[in-house]
Amino acid sequence: MRRPALPPRFPLPKAPPPPVFTGRLHDPRTATVVGRALGVAVAVCFVTGLVSHYLQQPPSWASGALPSRPVWGYRLTQGLHVASGIAALPLLLAKLWTVYPRLFARPAVRSFAHALERLSVGVLVGSVLLQLVTGLLNTVQWYPWPWNFRPAHWALAWVALGALLLHLAVKAPVIAAHWSRRSSGTREPTGADGPDRRSFVAAVAVATGAVTLTTVGQSVTPLGRAALFAPRSPEHGPQGLPVNRTATAARITPLLLADWRLQVAGPRPFELTLTELRAAAQHSAVLPIACVEGWSRNAHWTGARLRDLLDRAGAPADARLRVVSLEPEGAYAVTEMGASYARDPLTLLAVALNGHPLSLDHGYPARIIAPNRPGVLQTKWVTRLEVLL
Ligand SMILES: Nc1nc2c(c(=O)[nH]1)N[C@H]1C(S)=C(S)[C@@H](COP(=O)(O)O)O[C@H]1N2
Ligand SMILES: [Mo]
Prior knowledge:
The protein is an alpha+beta fold. The protein has two domains: 24-185 and 193-226, no CATH class; 254-388, Oxidoreductase, molybdopterin-binding domain (Sulfite Oxidase, Chain A, domain 2), CATH 3.90.420.10. Helix content is 41%, strand content 14%. The protein has ten helices and ten strands. It has helices spanning 28-56, 73-99, 112-139, 149-178, 181-185, 195-213, 254-258, 274-279, 306-312, 339-342, and strands spanning 262-265, 270-272, 282-290, 296-305, 320-325, 334-337, 348-353, 356-357, 367-369, 382-388. The strands form two sheets. It has a five-stranded mixed β-sheet with strand order 2-1-10-5-6. Strands 3, 4, 7, 8 and 9 form a five-stranded antiparallel β-sheet that branches. A hairpin with an 8-residue loop joins strand 5 (320-325) and strand 6 (334-337). Helix 1 (28-56) packs antiparallel against helix 4, helix 2 (73-99) crosses helix 3 and helix 3 (112-139) packs across helix 4 (149-178). The chain is elongated, with a radius of gyration of 27 Å. The mean pLDDT is 92. The protein binds the ligand Nc1nc2c(c(=O)[nH]1)N[C@H]1C(S)=C(S)[C@@H](COP(=O)(O)O)O[C@H]1N2 and molybdenum atom. The ligand Nc1nc2c(c(=O)[nH]1)N[C@H]1C(S)=C(S)[C@@H](COP(=O)(O)O)O[C@H]1N2 binds at residues 241-245, 250, 289, 291, 325, 327, 330, 332-333, 362-363, 375-376, 378-381. The site of the ligand Nc1nc2c(c(=O)[nH]1)N[C@H]1C(S)=C(S)[C@@H](COP(=O)(O)O)O[C@H]1N2 has 21 residues, from loops.
């Protein structure tokens, strides 16, 4: 027996009608125009990110052949990586604002394919937003999360790429139809872009230009004075060069330095005191420190050629090298170097910077400086070189 439905005690609230969005700022043409710029920024960021990853963690077959030229290569690619990531933030916010009315589209799910599309957009927005924001926080060395930044940044980049390619494939017809003003003009009675859209796009361009110009000076020296919002000024620091990790932070103590020797382990191992290292054939090179965080600065370095030290230790020409710092612990206390860097005539075990002995914060008594290499691998306070056979 069916029970008669009870009348609701209170009238059920009616769902509010979905908002109606008219106007050009939320239409596919605006989404395409902003999306195009965002796509360029994301593509530059992704490719330069790959470069950075493979320079830091090359597959073993490539580790001896990484290019040590051009000397400014990593300075350029990492500067672009951070600049394009910063530029992508206002572009992403603008893009989200243009398309957010679609969140209110009803019915929420029309079909299985439609559900998948909405899910993929969710993954896309989430991963790109998280990637850009955590990347930005990394440039100020603030890690308010429990996971290790680098592997997460690497994995998330692939998630974002997959979701982006899917999104582009799904939206290809819409993008094609609105790519140029003429093709979308057929859908617009007024033809050309209206002033509302033009001012919106101009405002987004100004915002993007502003954040870029006020930060990019951390790697583009002539714009250094405009870098109001860059976390580091490349001009400030002891000996005219910023310091990322100070000797105090790295717990380099007078005790550790007291009986410093350079040890070179290889087929013919030897040790040098600082006086002996300074008396060895000295070479100079102008090379940048290019930090993964986006700042970079050229400096004048003097020291012994690494390859001379390796030859003296009887290292084979293709030998890899392990560089050990006095730093008791830390992610960059021990680094490895392939033969292409170790044999480059510009790669030095530097003892002087800009004409003066290295200061403690820059790696006294001796540090690695090599061309086209991420700053994290320019090991400071070097005490031991091990030829890996
Ligand atoms: N031993 C050691 N070397 C290190 C680091 C470190 O933490 N420990 N930091 C690296 C990083 S991240 C950078 S960017 C450069 C900075 O060099 P600078 O302080 O001389 O400018 O040193 C590198 N060498
Ligand atoms: Mo760095």
